[in-house]
Design brief:
heterodimer; A: alpha/beta; Nucleotidyltransferase, domain 5; 2 domains; five-stranded mixed sheet; globular; B: alpha/beta; six-stranded mixed sheet; 7 helices; 11 strands; about 30% helix
């Protein structure tokens, strides 16, 4: 089954053609980083406007790259939420118009379900090409961690039988009570004038800092120990900067960035003192330690042996390293998608949509977007 | 030339709708019944229009859509739907300004037409249109002076006086349900005539699209963009 996937929940306009939920024929992502860069974060109305300009060319390019015509597409899967409502609606309405006018099945996909399926999609491709022999099995605990989400799920699936396609079930174990991890990276990067998005530049700079030079301490949670909170950490970073030499340095960097325009992480590093690099490393270490610790606690509590990690922050190199170590130490299998499938993309939406379509799920003209669409129970 | 079938949409405001037109004749029309969610409503409306006229979307030759100004999300829903349908059937689209759809309804003797729309937040969208010389007698045809402006009510009279020659025949057009625009039109200098038109602009959108199409002024779905006029708050308030 050839599925056209469309994703526009935040600041990436994406389209992909995926065969049988396991082979990516094309995956096009138009990033809006340049649009939002000067604001240091995603501006919802600007994102929506940009999606409308990109949706037609992005879908065209996905079809062209997959070498299929719209008529050959057998179903359309679109993100229905959660996300920015104005952004979601562009991809959803476009996809709905295409599917319904072609008379092809349409299915709405939860963005978070897409991130979970990105892990299984990558694993199927890795198995098919011999890159791995280890199957990503459920039940699994999944950490979806990005600029908009930080949430832990228990994911399970009923077996695939001759009569029925597997039914995936999701149970939310915990989530952030304030900022998403990626958002915290963005805000600290903005505070220190390091650039946008914050995650990749902090990841690069932190390699040159000494994380133990700046201790942030563990994040303590009342109630559900599988919930997250990063706003305190962000404030702690602010206190370490405000009124110190680091603040003056950040202002100098801000002025330099304004005149220099776009800069690579290496160029930014030249303008960072060791104290700034240490702070960045300490902050990243604290975020990563918390994400790993709570995910392991979730796996232990749920008695599962498999962990999936997905979302934009899953690209973070320290996070991958720490999960790798933790997996070996605790005899857990940890699966990550490659960076192209970790960040927002439409291949994961097509892959998740495939399973819903195989179970006979169909959306009609009443399909609409929901900013806070929940996943599972 | 065979009769041209146009599907016209307006999802930019609560008095929007959709209609199917053939060579100026309206075959069927649906008006928003007060529901806000155009992302669902527009599909239901079009489905109903097609059922009434026994037509298929594949029969449509041109997708005409209001591309603003109006509700930002509403504009995008209409444009994205038109783009999706047009792409599927390899048909052109035509983005029509809500201000132009008001202006073409000006009384025949009007030289200058000014369209006013409530932009909320104490502001108005204004468009200025000049009758193109030589088209007197025939259905009125107007040329837009730019895409339009967003103005405070107090600045309107001066904006007109700068752009319209003194003593020119100027008619100010407002929609019947648009209280803010009507209130403003009432305080304009007495030399400016006022005209209240029906709220549903779908027939006017179809009429302009037919005219544009005959002049070859149509677009591919990828070329169609929204015309918001109002910039985003982030852009307006951003400081270095």
């Amino acid at each position: 089954m050839l599925i056209l996937g469309i994703e526009s929940s935040c600041d990436e306009t994406a389209a992909a053609v995926v065969e049988n939920g396991e082979r990516i024929l094309s995956s096009i992502v138009a990033s809006q980083v340049l649009t939002h860069e000067k604001y240091g974060g995603v501006v919802p109305e600007l994102a929506s406007r940009e999606h409308l300009r990109r949706i037609v060319p992005v879908v065209d390019e996905a079809l062209k790259k997959a070498n299929v015509s719209l008529a050959e597409i057998e179903a359309v899967a679109v993100t229905e939420g959660p996300g920015l409502i104005g952004s979601l609606l562009v991809g959803l309405v476009y996809g709905k118009a295409v599917a319904l006018s072609l008379g092809k099945p349409l299915v709405g996909v939860n963005h978070l379900e897409g991130h979970i399926h990105a892990v299984m999609l990558e694993n199927k491709m890795a198995l098919a090409t011999g890159r791995t022999t280890e199957q990503a099995r459920t039940p699994a605990v999944t950490l979806v961690v990005s600029g908009g989400h930080t949430v832990l799920y228990h994911v399970d699936s009923a077996p695939n039988t001759a009569l029925a396609a597997p039914l995936f079930t999701y149970r939310r174990l915990g989530q952030t009570r304030d900022d998403a991890a990626g958002e915290a990276f963005d805000k600290v990067a903005k505070l220190l004038a390091l650039g946008y998005p914050g995650g990749p530049v902090i990841d690069s700079l932190a390699r040159f800092g000494n994380s133990s030079a700046v201790e942030f301490g563990r994040i303590k949670m009342k109630g559900n120990q599988l919930d997250f909170s990063f706003s305190g950490l962000k404030t702690a970073a602010l206190y370490r900067v405000r009124g110190t030499a680091l603040a003056a340095e950040a202002e100098q960097r801000r002025a330099w960035r304004k005149s220099a325009g776009r800069a690579t992480a290496d160029e930014v590093r030249v303008h960072c003192s060791q104290a700034t690099l240490d702070l960045v490393a300490g902050f990243q270490n604290a975020v990563v330690a918390d994400l790993v610790e709570r995910t392991l606690a979730a796996a232990a509590r749920e008695r599962v042996e498999t962990i999936f990690v997905s979302g934009g922050v899953a690209c973070n190199s320290l996070l991958r390293e720490r999960f790798g170590e933790a997996g070996r130490r605790n005899r857990l299998s940890v699966f990550f998608p490659p960076p192209s499938l970790s960040t927002d993309n439409a291949a994961m939406i097509a892959a998740a949509g495939y399973h819903k379509l195989r179970r006979g799920e169909r959306a009609d003209a009443s399909l609409t977007a929901h900013a806070s669409l929940p996943l599972g129970v | 030339m065979a009769a041209m079938l146009i599907l016209a949409l307006d999802t930019t405001n609560e008095r929007g709708g959709a209609g199917i037109f053939r060579d100026g004749d309206c075959l069927a029309m649906a008006e928003n019944d007060g529901r806000a969610n155009y992302s669902v409503l527009i599909f239901e409306m079009v489905e109903r229009l097609l059922a009434e006229t026994l037509l298929k979307l594949a029969d449509v030759d041109l997708f005409a859509v209001s591309n603003g100004p109006g509700s930002f999300t509403g504009i995008r829903v209409g444009v994205a739907a038109a783009q999706g349908w047009a792409t599927t059937f390899g048909r052109p689209v035509c983005g029509i300004s809500e201000l132009a759809a008001l202006a073409v309804q000006a009384q025949p003797e009007t030289e200058w037409a000014a369209s006013l729309l409530d932009a909320r937040r104490g502001e108005l969208y204004a468009g200025l249109f000049r009758r193109i010389a030589g088209s007197a007698g025939a259905p009125a045809k107007y040329e837009a002076l730019g895409e339009g402006w967003i103005l405070k009510p107090g600045d309107l009279a001066e904006a007109f006086s700068q752009k319209v020659p003194a003593g020119a025949n100027l008619t100010c057009l407002v929609r019947e349900h648009d209280q803010a625009a009507q209130k403003l039109a009432e305080i304009l200098p007495g030399t400016i005539r006022r005209q209240v038109v029906a709220g549903l602009l779908v027939p006017a959108i179809a009429r302009i699209a037919a005219q544009r199409s005959s002049e070859g002024k149509i677009q591919s779905p990828a070329e169609l963009d929204a015309c918001y006029i109002r910039r985003t708050d982030a852009e307006l308030h951003w400081q270095e």
